[in-house]
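Q: Can I see a sequence and its folded structure?
A: Here is a first one.
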Amino acid sequence: MPIRRLPPETVNRIAAGEVVERPASAIKEIVENSLDAGALQVDIQADDGGLSRILVVDDGGGMSRDELALALERHATSKLSPNAAGDFDLMHIGTLGFRGEALPSIGSVARLTLTARERGSGEAYSLTVEGGAMGEPRPAAFAGAHGARVEVRDLFFATPARLKFMKSARAESMAIAEEVKRQAMAHEATGFSLDLDGRRVLRLPPERPGPEGRLKRLSAILGADFEDNALLIDQQRDGVELTGYAGLPTYSRGNAGHQYLFVNDRPVRDRLLQGALRAAYADFLARDRHPTAALFVTLDPELVDVNVHPAKAEVRFRDPALVRGLIVGALRHALAGAGHRAATTVATAALSGFRPQTMASARGFSAWTGGGWAPQTAQTLPGVEEISARFERDDFAPTEPMRGPTAEVIDLTDYPLGAARAQVHETYIVAQTRDGVVIVDQHAAHERLVYERMKAEMDRGGVTRQALLLPEVVDLDPAEAERVAERADELAALGLIIEPFGPGAILVRETPALLGETDAAGLIRDIADDLAENGAPLALGERLQAVCSTMACHGSVRAGRRLTAAEMNALLREMEATPHSGQCNHGRPTYVELKLADIEKLFGRR
C-alpha cells in the first residue's frame, strides 16, 4: 500500500476530530482565545445544542486585516514567541491556547465567520471559511470599539458521520453551560453571559480579582448555599500555591459533578487532583458521597506540562507527589479549622419539613359561644403515657462557675452548642443557645468523638502490626507491582509491611492488627487499583478507618440511653473542642441548629 501525503483539508478534519469533539469543545476553544486576548466581557449564544449556530463576541484586543487569514491557518498563533536563539519554548506556556489548531479545525467542519476590529483601529474586517475553503477578508460592521466576533454555523456539516454521535440538543446545551461555568469560575474579573436557544441562562458580571470576588463568582454559579458552607483554602509549598474553596463534609453530593479543578487558571480533569481531593475527605464521607470544591493550583509553567492532549484538559506535573501532598494537607487543615461546624443546609432542610398546622374544634364557633371547648377525655391516644421527653429541673443550671481567682460565672447558652435543656426520645439532646435551639443526635455525636480519640491514639503510638505465620506472595502486573513497591514506606506507616518479590510480585510480611484476619492478596490488589486510579493507596487507610469507625460505633453512647444534664452538657462541650464533630463517621450531621428568627417565622411572628 503506497504512502500518500494527505491534503490540508483532510489533515484539518482529522485534527478537528481531536480538538472539536462536540459543540462545547468548540466554545471552549473560542472562549479561551477571547480570554487570552484580554477580554473583560465574553457573550456566548448557541442554538440547537450548538450544532446549528454558535456565536461568541468579546471585547479583547481584536485582530488586523492581515491577521484574520493567519488566525485560520493551522499552527499559526500569537501566543508563542521565539527566544534570542529563534527557538520556541513549550515549557513556559502562560496562555490557555498555544497550538494554533482550534479555529482552522472548526472552519474545516463548519461554516465559520470571523469578524474583528483591532484596538485603536477604525476599521473592522470579516473572513469566512466553509468546510476548509477560505474566502478573502472584507470590511464589515462591528459594534464594539475593539474585539472579535466568531460565528459558527452548521457544525460538522462537512463530516456528517460525526453528527450521528452527537447527543440530544438538551444534552449538548447542558455540556455548553457546564463548560462556560468552568471558564467563568477561573476568570472572575471577566463578565460572561450565555444564551441557549434565545433564552438567557447565565449572566455573570465582572467581579473584583481576589478571594472575595472569586467566592462571589463561585456562589453565583454553584448557588448561594456554597458561600455559607465553603472553607477558604490558601496554602503554599515549594513554589506551588493552592487556593480556592471546599465545602464542609455535611455539604456533600451524591456524585463528583461539583468538583472543579484548575491549574494556572486552566480547567482540567486530572486523576491525581481528584484522588487527592477524595483522600482528604476520606475520613469524613462515605464512599457514595462526594465533596464540593473549586481548587486552583498555581505554579511555574515549567513545573507542569500542558501539551499532553490537543484538548488541553489534561496536565502532567513534574513533581506530582508535591502537588498531591499540598492538596491533601491544605484541605485537612481547613477541615480541622472548621471545628464542629456543620452545613447550614441541614437546618434549612429541617425547617422545610415543618408545616404550619391549625387545630379547630369539630363544633366550631357555636362551641365557643356556648362556654368554650371541653377537653376530650374519653379518647386516649396510643403512646401518650410512654416517656418521650425528660428533663431534670434541679440539674439544669443555666450557668456554671469558673475556677480561678476571679470566680466568674459563665452562662452556658453563650457556648456555640448552648446549654442542654432536655433529652427527647432518649436519643436527641435539645440545647438552648443565645439565638436559637440545637438538636444533637447523641449516638452520632459521641461516635465521632470516640473515633477522633482512637485516631489520635493511633497517631501517637503508631499502627500495631501482626506478622503473618507464612508471608503471602501476591502476583500482580509488573507495572502494578512496581507502583505498590514504591509506596512501601507509606504503607509501613499504616501497618502493612511489604517488599518486592521478583518481577510482578509483592511479598506481604505483616498486616495491621486492627484488621484481624484479612485477605492480604485482596488488600494489595485494591491498593494497586487505587494507585492506578488515584495515585494514592486509599484502600488500606479506608479499611483502617472502617474498623475504627465500627469500634467507635460500638463504644459510643447508644440511642435509648438516658443521660443526666451533666452528661449532656459534657458531651456538648467535648463536641465544641473536637475537630470534625459536626458530622458522624459517615458524613451525616451530628446536630441541627435552628435560629430563633427562623422559628419565629414558622409561627408568623416575623
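Q: Show me another, different protein.
A: A second, unrelated one:
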Amino acid sequence: MIGQSVLRVEDQKFLSGAGRFIDDLSFPGELHCAIVRSPHPHARISRIRAPDAVVMFTGEDMARDGVQPMRCGWVLPGMVEPPRFALARGTVRHVGEPVAAVLASSQPLAEDAAEQIEVDYEPLPLLDGAPCFKWSRGERAAVEAAMHGAAHRVRLELVNNRLCGAAIETRGCTSTGDTLYCGTQAPHHIRRYVCQELGIDEGRLRVVSRDMGGGFGYKGKHYPEETIVVWAARKLGRSVKWVARRQESFLSDTQGRDHATRAELALDGQGRFLALNVQTTANLGAYVSSFGAAIPGPIYSALLAGVYRTPYVYVEVSGVFSNTVPTDAYRGAGRPEACYVLERLADKAARELGIDRAEIRRRNLIPASAMPYKTPVGPTYDCGDFPKVFERALEIANYKHKRKPGRGIGIACYVESSGVAPSRLAGMMGARVGFYESAQVRVAPDGSLTAYLGTHNHGQGHATTYAQILSAQLGVPMERIAIVEGDTAAVPVGTGTFGSRSIAVGGSALQVAGAKIIAKGKRIAAHLLEAADRDIEFRDGVFSVAGTDRKVTLQAVAGAAYVPHNYPLGELEPGLDENAFYDPPNFAFSNGVHVCEVELDADTGRVEIVGYWAVDDIGTVINPMIVEGQLHGGLAQGIGQALGERTVYDEGQLLSASFMDYALPRAGDLPFFASELDESQPCTHNPLGAKGCGESGAIAAPAAVINAVLDALRPLGVEDIEMPATPHRIWQAIMRHRGMG
C-alpha cells in the first residue's frame, strides 16, 4: 500500500455533509458567550459596567478564583514574558484583546448584551519596538573576517509581510466543565495549558477536537477563549459555547511572519559564497504566544544555511513587542522567511556579479557526497541530493528557453526542518513541552485494527495514510482499519499536528507500535504452531514456520490472544494491543526547488503566473495524491503572500480586518502546477524514511514568485519590490522609475 494513490477514505463524510465541526455541537441548557474586546491598542482599564440583567465576567472575577496567567510553550534565554490573562486585568495591549465575557441563552442575545457593556479606558502610548529577546547562531568574528577579505559583498534589506491564517472555519470552543471541545491541532497541549491556568489535574479535563475546517499552524496554539469557556462552565455548572465571527478572527487569531531583515552575502571572484550575515527584527505582537519566540528564534535561524555550502553564517534575531495581535506559527513557520532571505540574496548576487541565476546556485549547492552535512548554524542534514533536484526542476521548467517580453522567471531552493522535533534538542533551546508522538495499535479478536494517535487530522488525510502504513506492515485490508485522533480521553498523550510532523513522527510511532504487534504475534504463533519463536516469520498478515507450509493468520492469532484457551499464559498477557512513543533523533530535512514564470502587464501592474514547476524531496511517499494536495495547498498560500495578502496596522489599529481588505488568492489567480517527487533520499533516521510535505509549497513559493516578478520588472528599471507585489505596488514602482511617481 505504500506509494499508492489511494482515494481518501474520509472524504465521503465531508461530501455528504456528515462532518462535525464546533458550531455543530450543542448541549442542553448551554450558554453562548460573546467576548467584549478592546478597541484600543494600549490602554488602562479604569472601569467596566454592565446592566443588572447581563451575566458578565471580567479579569477580576478570574483573579478572585485564582486563575493564573497564560504561559508560552517556548521561552528563550533572557526573554521578557509579560503576563497575559484570558481576560485582561488592568491593561490591554492590542486591539481585540478580551476584556469581558458575556453569557446568554443564544448567540444573538449574547452579542446584544455585549454591546451594552461600558468600559472606561485610559489610552497609553504605544510600545512598538520594546525588546523581548535576542537570539543568535554562528560565529560573528569568522563571518566578519570573511566579509573583510571577500571580492564581493552583496547587501539586501527586505520585509516579510505579516499574514492572517484565515481558515474557512473560524475558531470556536464549547465546554461542559469536564470536557473542552475545540478546533485545535494539539489537544494535549491545550489541555496542559488550560489545566495549568485553572489549577486542575490534567486527568480531570478531556479535550476533544473533531473535524476542523483548516488549521495552518495558528489553530495549534493556545487562546484565551479556551480557558474562559472551561472556567465559566465549571463556575456556572452549564455548558458554555463561543464561536468567532470572521472579523473577530482577524482581531484575535495569531498572525504570522512580520520580519524586517538586513542581510549581507560575501562571495569570491567566481561567485562562491564565503559568508552570510543576517540581522532580523521579528515583531512578536503584544505578548509571547505559545511558540511565538521559537518561530523567529531557533527555527528560523537554523535554516539560514539553506542548501548552500556557505562556510560561515551568523544570524542575530531581535524579537520585539508591538501593540498588535501576537504572532506565532503560520504554514511554514520560520522556514519561508529563511528561504526568502537566501533566495533573494542569491538572485541579487547573480545580477551584481553578472552570473546566470541558476549557475550561481549550482556553484554553491551542497553535494550529495557531503552528506551528512553539518551546517555552520547548527543542524546536520542527514541526506539529500540537492544538485539532482535542482537540475531536474530546471529541466521540467525549460529554464533555458527564451521567454517573450514581459515575462520573468524565478527560482527558489529550500530546505525545511520537518518532523518537528527532537524533544531533547527543543528543550535545550527553551521548549517547555515535548515533541514526541504516540500511537496505540489495538487488534480486535476478529483481526480488525484500530489505531489511536496523538496527532490530529484536519485535511492531511490521516485516516487514509495511517491505514496504508498499517495495511502494508500488518497485511490487513484498509477497510478493516480505523484511525482515532483528537480525543485526550481516547488516545495516548501526544504532541499534535504541526511542523510537517504527522507522517515523519506520528507515522513512525505507528510503525513502531505495529512492530510490537508483530513481535508479540510471533510468540503467540510459535505457541500455536508448536515452534520456536525464532523460527516464526511474518508476511502479508500470515505467521509461518520458516521452511515449512505451517502457518496461522494474524486474525487467528488475535482470536487466540482474546480467547486464551490455547495460549502461553505463563509467558504472555492476553490481548493484542501495543503502544509506542517515538521521539525523533533529528529533524527530517525536506528540500526542493521551485521555478515560477510570470507575465507582467506594465500598464496595469497586473501579474499572471503562467507556469509553476516544483521538484520536492520529501523522502518516502505514502500516498502521492495526498502529497500533491498538500503541496498545492501550500503553494496557494505562498502565492497569496507574494501577490496579495498583507495584514496592515496603523497606530495599532487593524486596517485589514475583512476579506474586503485582506486579499486571499482565488482559484483564478493560480496556475496548474507541475510537480514531481524525488524519493531517492529517504530520511535515514526514522523507520519510514519519511520527511514532511505539508509546508513545502508555502516555503518556496514567495521567493520563487517575487524573483520571477523582479525578473520581469528588470527591463523596466525596477530592481526591488516588497511583498505583496500587488498591481498597485508594481505600477507605482514602474511610474517611479519613469519619473512619474
